[in-house]
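During the reporting period the student researcher (J.K.) took over the structure-prediction task from the postdoctoral fellow and processed the backlog of single-chain submissions. One of the processed entries is reproduced below for the supervisory committee.
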Amino acid sequence: MYQLKKFEFFEEKNPGKCSVPEEVKGKINCCSSGRGKIVVGCDDGMVNLLDRGFKFNHGFQAHATSVLFLQQLKQRNFLITIGEDEQTSPQLSHICLKVFDLDKTQPEGSSTTAPDCVQMRIFTNQFPEAKITSFLVLEEAPPILLISIGLDNGCIYCIKGDIARERISRFQLQVETVTDKSDASITGLGFRVDGQALQLFAVTPTSVSLFNLQDKPPRRHTLDQIGCNTNCVAMSDRLELIVGRPEAVYFYEADGRGPCSAFEGEKKFVGWFRGYLLCVIADQRNGKNTFNIYDLKNRLIAHSTVISEVSHLICEWGNVILIMSDRTVISVGEKDMESKLDMLFKKNLYTVAINLVRSQQADAAATAEVLRKYGDHLYGKQDYDGAMSQYIYTIGYLEPSYVIQKFLDAQRIYNLTNYLEKLHEQGLGSKDHTTLLLNCYTKLKDVEKLNVFIKGEDGIGEHKFDVETAIRVCRAAGYHEHAMYVAKKAGKHEWYLKILLEDLDEYQEALQYISSLEPSQAGITMKEYGKVLVEHKPVETVEILMKLCTEEEESTGGGTLDGTFLSMLPSPVDFLNMFVHHPKSLMDFLERYISKVRESPAQVEIHNTLLELYLSSDLNFPSMAQEIIGEGLNLGRSSTVGGSLAKSESKEKLAADNKDKDKEKDRLERLKKGLSLLKNGWPSDLEHPLYDVDLAIILCEMNAFKEGLLFLYEKMKLYKEVITCYMQAHDHEGLIACCKKLGDSNCGGDPSLWGDLLKYFGELGEDCSKEVKEVLTYIERDDILPPIIVLQTLAKNPCLTLSVVKDYISRKLEKESKLIEEDHRAVEKYQETTLNMRKEIHDLRTNARIFQLSKCTLCTFTLDLPAVHFMCMHSFHQRCLGDNEKECPECAPEYRSVMDLKKSLEHNSKDHDRFFQQVKNSKDGFSVIAEYFGKGIVSKTSLTEAQKTANFPSRNGF
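J.K. obtained the following structure tokens:
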């Protein structure tokens, strides 16, 4: 006992004198607590109920003589008592058991009330009477009760069932059979309920036994051969039996004796309260009693006070209550945790404080606060390792900056590293903490720990640290391998490549890494780092881009790719900005792409870009320029030191000439490719080309690419622009050849080009007789221009003589003369025909017609009456004509065709578009107009009445 430290964790709740109320007249034999009240049984048979502060509530007469034992139930407001009543007959015992329902009271007079009571006799013929030494009630599932009554003869009477309804069963347990009752009496009982197991502890002065009540009959197990006196038996909250003996306090479990605590002195009372052991110990040396409260887990005495003789010990209202023999009452309550901790902190007993909060299951925040104070105490004593061990336990509750600030001193870097490691292990490290920890590793140059932290199995999978922070710190400290490892594991491709390209200049490895990524991620990465890669590894970069844009796999077999599939792939247009300073690489990339892909969704943009590269007048290649300059410098160094300045200048001039020749050669090759691209991009079967025509024309004009312009103008049927190009170049031979090709109307050409060509030569102002004669040949062949226009056009050129057009004019005049003669003959013929028609019309109007036909024109039989004669000299039987008597069957078709032609001509006279189209398409528009006038389509003519009826038949019937 003297080895335990003493503390005042309890305090007296009612300082001063507190005693049993005066209303309690008799001597207190027994006490019980529960449901917020204390129940007192007296030797006068009264049961008194006391409220908080030991104030009298009410009382009632429970037994006639004395109340020996009582117990307040917890689950129901029932009170069970054992007492002495009047003996009604010698055969019946005066000891009886009563169950009071405190919720149901019956009035007894004006001032007292008595609850409902169920009474039963304990002893029967089967269970003979003996002195009761102990009493215990177990509440099973209400209303089932298990009442155990210990006797001085070593037996235990058990009553089980619903006592209120008298549905009970009795059985007896025999603990010991000893002749001396002082050694066999039951001094204490205790129930142990563990799940479905129900066990009963029984204590005598010489033994500790355990009955398993599940067995039929219950079996007895002897746990120990020593026992204790009355009032020295209790049950802990861990279902352990507590037995107090003079030498020690013993704890028993179902399998036997457990630990014991050696406390000197005779134990008068033993109890258990909220994890504390309660003992009233008699000191034989001074004859005084000491009341101690032990905290066995923390090995300390929580309270100790000297008291007088104790009558009863109970617990209620969160206090320990001692009823003394002189009827005074001592109530002791536990102090709050803060008061207890303050007491320990003042004495620097931090270890005790920590054990205390842990044993009493305080919340984690309170425990962390105690640990922090202990850590501060150790830190103040410069025990940095010990302080850090305490601070580590506060992780998750104490702000990390509080600890970090204390250990920022360079001499405490090891402790700081340890704390930061634990912080990250629990997943509580922030970006700043990760930065600080990695800086600690790098300052300590502890590569092994850095490897464990970075490359640990659980590190990245559980995100024990901020990935980007770790990468940034390792990179800044020069630990590129570790930074790359983290970036790769975490999928931070941009960081991985940034380290490779910006720090290590590992361009080839970067390309390999990009090729191993998913296509979508690889495309994003190439857009970001493509410029650097193209600058250092242009060929390999183009290979990767081709793979991304076409996914060149063995499964494709080298064929063209499907358009739907290509729409899901990146487009080369997305990567154009990579090649800002490397147009040659871009040109190679696009050339390979269009050779592989025929139907790209972005083919117009690709062809436009490639065409612009082909037609650009100059491509700057920094690498080539540096190489050429470097070669020039090397040549200069290889010359003798004493060489003259003139030699070096000549070499520089030679290098410049070679450079110009190479550039010119490259430009010619590009122009050749450009023309091929223009032609291949606009095949004859396509209405629209694979490039923007307007842009192509602008590029050709800006770069003076004549061949491209001619091709585009020809494809767009802009023939006049084609010959304009030749005119501007003064290429007469090409101009005439172009007109031969494009001026043939039979092949869809424009014959008017010859007129433009003649005009060009007429305004040329130089001798071009040969060319004019050739042009006149085609103008005369196709009759493109009238001679007068030809003469007026050529007259503007003072260098041309009449001999150029002499033969042309003579042939035209001869031809015109023949045409005039033919026209005269046609006029005479038409006049003669017209005169004959007029005579015939006059004859029809003035003279009679004699019909001499003897046969019907239709059936060729002899003509008989009735007959029909027409003015066209055809005669018919009337029966042969049927209903059609108004027109001659023989002449009607010809007449209808003439009338249809007339209607068609009248309709055509209103179709102006057709008229002008014929005039435009005809070689001689004047002849078309003359034909319209000749057919009477244009002129407004009206027929006379005689003309309208000239062809109408005349019917004579006989």
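The committee noted the following: DSSP finds 33 helices and 31 strands in the chain.
J.K. will present the remaining backlog at the next meeting.
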